[in-house]
Amino acid sequence: MTLTARVHQTVAEVGREAWDALAAPTGDPFVTFDFLDACEASGSAVPRQGWAGRHLTLERDGRLTGALPLWLKGHSQGEYVFDHAWAQAFERAGGAYYPKLLSAVPFTPVTGPRLLVAPGEDVDAVRAGLLEAAIGLAERMDVSSLHLNFPTGQEWDWLGATGLLKRQDMQFVWRDRGYGDFEGFLAALSSGRRKSIRRERREAQTGLDIRTLTGNDIKSEHWDAFFAFYMDTGSRKWGRPYLTRDFFDRVGSTMAERIVLVMAFDDGTPLAGALNFIGRDALYGRQWGTLVDRPFLHFELCYYQAIDFALARGLGRVEAGAQGEHKLGRGYLPERVHSAHWIAHDGLRRAVADHLEGERMAVDAEMSMLRREGSPYRET
After folding, report:
1. Across residues 22-49, what is the average pLDDT?
2. Are 356 and 365 in contact (CB under 8 A)?
3. What digits encode the pLDDT tens for the residues 195-252?
4. What whole-number distance in Å separates Cα of residue 195 and Cα of residue 197?
5. Per the count of CB atoms within 10 A, which of 40, 160, 202, 317 is most buried?
6. Rounded distance between C-alpha atoms, residue 51 and residue 56, angstroms
């Protein structure tokens, strides 16, 4: 087939209808037009912040057949796949690691489709066209590398088969195994963990009004409060939060039915909140923030309330974000996440390939150890 590749500085240049014809069928909320446009139009992921859009599309006879969200990055912040050591090593050797090209969802370490293919198209052919166009763009721009962060496992295998370097890490995921309700989930745990979780929930909830808001129940004042939580907690944890206040207004306006905002109130005053997005079969925990130091409130709002909501909505899993072995004792088990990498410089590529081989083995060993020695579930 004859495909024409085009580069766009924003998803708005592509348009909601055209982009979502590819993104919406995936069921992933983060590759939709509304989420990516909110990142860009709000000033959160823009060139002055080190995120310059270079989104690729493939067309045949004027019809969009494929798309790849793509960014020209001047740093490695907000990615959650850590390549700072690669950059430092290359620059010590006299190379220039930045800028680089990155296919990802800004500030969102969530596995999802990256190589978007229109329904009815030849998947392998469109993927090959997108990857060829991305590598060609990297070569024309003379950048060091191209990275695809958090692709699906099927995409990861396909990318590895084309010769890209394969990297893996882990996140902690809760899965519904037919529990029915939260008590059913607790029944699957060891007696010690059941008691601990009940105590944590009791202490976190005492004296507070905890509300789960979605759709039209989320008002502007809720976003005002949540943004204050996000800025306070984010400033202490990361140094500089990524998302602007306008981002939350935009997703609140266009994606309200796919948002779950869990908030804790004390006598009507909001104290803390956790932001989640609803996918086709998963609930995705994203940001959290609080203005108070209250034991176990983080676990209650981010993990236990998420499980409650997933069980009520029939969602099969909760993905609570990057890192955090403390999730293990709350029923979230380690699972693999992936990335794939094209590196222009032969020497750097060989060094990274050698490192990744050992890293993959280490991740597998750690996951096995955590599941064996740290699982909170009863032995069956």
Report:
1. 98
2. no
3. 999 999 999 999 999 999 999 999 999 999 999 999 987 666 656 789 999 999 999 9
4. 6
5. 40
6. 15
For residue 148, list its beta bridge partners. 103, 340
Q: Can you state the angle between helices 220-237 and 245-254, rounded to 10 degrees?
A: 140
Q: How far apart are CA 13 and CA 187, in angstroms?
A: 51
Q: For residues 324 and 162, which has the higher predicted lDDT (pLDDT)? A: 162
Q: How far, in Å, CA of 277 to CA of 71, rounded?
A: 23
DSSP string, 1-24: ---EEEEESSHHHH-HHHHHHHHG
Give backbone dihedrals phi and psi of 167, rounded to 5 degrees, phi first.
-120, 150
Residue tagged 């992933």 (tokens):
28
Model pLDDT for residues 277-291, shown as the tens digit of each residue:
999 999 999 999 999
Amino acid (one-letter) located at 344:
A
Q: Considering Cα of 85, then 79, then 325, then 319, what sign does the dihedral take?
A: negative
Cβ density class 353-366: b for 16+ within 10 Å, e for less: eeebeeeeeebeee
Q: How many residues does the chain have?
A: 380
In sequence order, what are the beta bridge partners of 5?
A: 58
